[in-house]
Specification:
single chain; 609 residues; Butyryl-CoA Dehydrogenase, subunit A, domain 3
């Protein structure tokens, strides 16, 4: 597999694309943007159908199998339409943070989602009330066999919830309470800007643009931008602390009422994984920290720094004349995907040509990147800010992996498509690894090769140390929040201590306000939006290792694994498809060995520095 050298697309010598449009096409879904009349009508009909379904469920439990099949089909149809509307709003909010009306329609979508969640809560109670013998008969019916895992999961989870009326009240109050704090955080931070000095002139940047500046080669620029970054978030810290405290207080109160002792109970169940798997992963990472520290100490020396700061984590080691255009990046990604899977390459080609990707580097965009799916249209949309860096290329490949994952599940029932965040990172990180390895092989000289190897090791630090610092912070923050409101000062202290522990003392300068700047802490859709990234990174490394040995038959087996991500727990998924036990250290050690396999070459190449 991958036994021939990639073309020299890093320098655009054989580009497959020319003059690609770097803005996505949302008009094919609902023309007119946030003021789309078609979208307004779509939401009207969706709202009416959710209310009608609510009335139907309120009439009582279906009496026979055919009625159950009909009811569950309605659930899946409404789920598909809600995902379509939610994806559209997400794109509107991301492409222009000043679009006030997008927040209005977003609020309406959130309200319909809450109403539907209440209906599902009532339906789950009906499922729970079915006698066990009758439940077995329902699951054995041909029409429902594909949903057996998902329905059983719903029945099991319903046992852990509050009485029906209380859970419905929780759903209704969460719209303006719980989710409202998240929306307000997005609004306030979305309007932020930073003013920096660049070539002797003041330049105003969005947070996303400023983040890109911190991966440049000049240490003075990196430090200057980092100082402005900290200042900007410090100004908003009181508000961010208020929002974070309220979100955590809501969760803790709900968990207490449900009788849940651990704040990890919900995220572990959401990600369909056990505490034993989580602990095995973190324990194995901790036993390998010395290798990461060795890399960071060498990088500090090579960069000629007296202090290694947070802003230096993305600093390049090595040199490259390559500044990839968007067309060249697209060509390079498609070619490398094609070496692994024709279907991956075809999906990526379609995404670039049919304008699935919003890549333009401009002010007013939300920071970060994501991929969202439009299930009714069987298309995805990808959001990034592309400025030509190799990191940008990796991000595009990463998000295309998400799109590929969804594409191979489009024919499954919507319930069976609902995979959790940890396995959602499998295809994305796998795709990123394919492109990163290809870039190393395509390097034209030692300087460029060193730069690319360093970029891979940077990602290992990000996923094994940075993400761990977020996990440690959030776990300890919740411990403090149980006692009462947590101040900005305390939040900063918890954050710095978490970074010191996660980075094993390898940094000299830290990022106290990281808790304010990282929107993942404010997500109400995914609890503990941190450890799944590390899981996905290492799980995909295991898949990647398997892929390199499997040859071309890998494609069908890989697609089979991805299709099962929405209908299996992760431990079962690993046993079935790659024959691994996630609750022990062996798998995690082999995955870490793979992601750090370039470290010896990095140390050898920099030994004379």
């Amino acid at each position: 597999m991958w036994n021939h050298s990639p073309k020299d697309l890093l320098r655009g010598e054989s580009s497959l694309f020319r003059d690609l449009n770097q803005t996505w096409n949302l008009e094919v879904f609902f023309p007119g943007g946030s003021r789309s009349h078609a979208f307004a009508l779509y939401l009207d009909r969706l709202d009416e159908d959710v209310k009608a379904f609510s009335d139907e469920v309120a009439e009582g439990r279906p009496r026979d199998l055919a009625a159950w099949v009909e009811r569950l089909n309605k659930v899946q149809g409404l789920t598909r339409r809600l995902r379509q509307s939610s994806a559209f709003v997400s794109c509107l909010n991301a492409q222009d943070v000043t679009d006030r009306y997008s927040r209005v329609v977003g609020g309406r979508v959130r309200q319909i989602q809450a109403s539907f969640a209440s209906v599902l809560t009532a339906l789950d109670r009906q499922i729970l009330d079915i006698p066990d013998d009758r439940w077995g008969e329902i699951l054995s019916a041909d029409e429902l066999k594909p949903l057996a895992f998902n329905l059983t999961e719903r029945r099991t989870r319903a046992k852990d919830k509050l009485p029906l009326e209380q859970e419905i009240l929780v759903n209704e109050l969460s719209v303006d309470g719980y989710h409202g704090w998240s929306d307000l955080y997005d609004l306030v931070t979305g309007r932020m800007s930073l003013t920096i000095l660049e070539d002797g002139k003041e330049v105003t940047l969005s947070p996303g643009q400023a983040a890109n500046r911190m991966s440049g080669p000049d240490p003075a620029v990196r430090r200057h931008v980092m100082e402005r970054w900290e200042e900007a978030w410090a100004k908003e810290a009181e508000f961010c602390a208020l929002a974070l405290n309220r979100l955590a207080g809501y969760r803790l109160a709900l968990y207490r009422r449900r009788g849940w002792d651990s704040v990890l109970r919900e995220p572990l169940e959401y990600n369909r994984m056990s505490q034993a798997t989580l602990e095995a992963m973190w324990d194995t990472i901790n036993r390998n920290k010395d290798r990461l520290v060795t890399y960071m100490n060498r990088k500090k020396r090579v960069l000629g720094l007296s202090e290694l700061g947070w802003q230096d984590l993305g600093a390049p080691v090595g040199k490259s004349e390559s500044k990839m255009t968007y067309d060249d990046a697209a060509s390079f990604i498609v070619e490398q995907f094609g070496r692994v899977s024709d279907k991956m390459a075809d999906l990526a080609t379609r995404a670039f040509r049919d304008r699935w990707i919003e890549a333009e580097d401009r002010p007013g965009k939300r920071m970060g990147g994501f991929c969202t799916s439009f299930p009714e249209s069987k298309e995805s949309r990808i959001f990034v800010t592309f400025s030509g860096t190799l990191g940008n290329v990796a991000t595009v490949a990463h998000e295309l992996g998400h799109a590929f994952h969804q594409s191979v599940m489009n024919d499954l029932p919507p319930m069976a498509q609902q995979y959790a965040m940890n396995v959602a990172e499998t295809a994305s990180t796998f795709s990123e690894m394919v492109v990163a390895d290809a870039a190393v092989r395509a390097a034209k000289n030692d300087d460029e090769r060193l730069l690319l190897i360093d970029d891979k090791l940077q990602r290992a630090v990000a996923l094994l140390m940075n993400i761990q610092s977020r996990f440690l912070f959030e776990t300890r923050f919740y411990e403090e929040r149980r006692k009462g409101m947590v101040s900005v000062r305390c939040l900063n202290e918890i954050m710095v201590e978490a970074q010191k522990e996660a980075f094993a003392g390898a940094l000299d300068l830290y990022h106290p306000h990281f808790w304010a700047s990282k929107l993942h802490f404010y997500s109400t859709g995914v609890p503990f939006y941190n450890f799944p990234y590390t899981f996905g990174f290492l799980f995909s490394a295991g898949v990647y290792s398997w892929a390199r040995e499997a040859g071309r038959e890998f494609e069908d087996r890989y697609i089979g694994l991805l299709r099962d991500t929405g209908r299996m727990r992760v431990e079962d998924l690993a046993r079935k498809h790659i024959g691994q036990d996630l609750t022990g250290p062996a798998f995690w050690q082999s995955a870490i060995d793979l992601v750090l396999s370039d470290l010896p070459e990095f140390l050898d190449m920099t030994s004379a520095e």
